[in-house]
Structures are given as C-alpha cells and as structure tokens.
Amino acid sequence: MTTPQGWVGPAAIVAGVLLLIVALFRRSRATLAKKRRATHPGGADWW
C-alpha cells in the first residue's frame, strides 16, 4: 500500500498539465473567435 502522499505529486503534475492545456485551448479559441469576428461580423455568435 502506498501512503496518501504518494499520489499527491503525480496528481499535482497531471492537474497542472490539464490546466495548461485548457488555458491554451481557451486562448486559441478566443483568438480564432477574434479573427472570425474580424472577417465575418456575424460569425462570432456561433462561439
């Protein structure tokens, strides 16, 4: 049996990676929405 502290490190790493991926994904979607809004004024309503 592993101690409760044995999964804290890996869980923190996984959580950090997931947060980084989500942040990058949201930022990329925001930039795409801005570009789409610049080219198509009505296209931003879909996002």
Structure overview:
The chain crosses the membrane at residues 6-25. Keywords: Membrane, Transmembrane, Transmembrane helix. By secondary structure, the protein is mostly helical. It has one domain (5-39). It is 68% helix and 0% strand. The protein has one helix and no strands. The protein has one helix at 8-39. The protein is rod-shaped and about 55 Å long.
Short description:
The chain crosses the membrane at residues 6-25. The chain is mostly helical and 47 residues long.
What labels describe this entry?
membrane, 47 residues, single chain, mainly alpha, transmembrane helix, transmembrane
Estimate percent helicity: 55-70%
Strand composition percent: under 5%
Estimate the global geometry from the Cα principal axes. Answer: rod-shaped
Number of helices: 1
- Mean pLDDT level: 81
| Secondary-structure content class | mainly alpha
What Rg, in angstroms, do the CA atoms define? 18 Å
- Please mark out the parts with pLDDT under 50 across 5 or more consecutive residues, or reply none: none
How far is the first residue's CA from the last residue's CA? Answer: 47 Å
- Helix-strand pattern, N to C? H
Keywords: Membrane, Transmembrane, Transmembrane helix
Transmembrane segments: 6-25
